[in-house]
Design the sequence.
């Protein structure tokens, strides 16, 4: 399945739809690069993301690390499979990452 990356204005970020794997992780990297350079908080709406392999995880980790000191990375409403993957890699060890399960529930991923 292809990865679709759509810009969102409120909150500033992107909606991801499909799957992230080694064949398309560079699409996400290319989309995020200008936003990371700009700094500030960034939100990835993961509602439509059905799968993420280690390539996708690495893009998210690199993005969060590059935002350290200039912004936070919010991971919005990941589905069960993606949320489990993100929890297993312990993204909560990065102080500027927050996973939001729905509009009023936050999950610390530590």
Sequence:
């Amino acid at each position: 399945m292809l990865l679709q990356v759509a810009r969102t204005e409120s909150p500033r970020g992107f909606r991801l739809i499909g799957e992230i794997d080694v064949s398309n992780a560079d699409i996400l990297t290319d989309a995020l690069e200008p936003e990371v350079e700009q700094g500030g908080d960034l939100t990835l709406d993961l509602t439509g993301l059905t799968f993420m392999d280690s390539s996708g995880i690495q893009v998210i980790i690199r993005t969060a690390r590059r935002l350290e000191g200039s912004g936070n990375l919010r991971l919005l409403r990941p589905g069960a499979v993606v949320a489990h993957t993100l929890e297993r890699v312990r993204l909560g060890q990065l102080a500027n990452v927050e996973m939001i399960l729905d509009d009023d529930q936050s999950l610390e991923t530590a």
Remarks:
- Residues 25-38 form the longest helix (14 residues).
- The first strand starts at residue 3 and ends at 8.
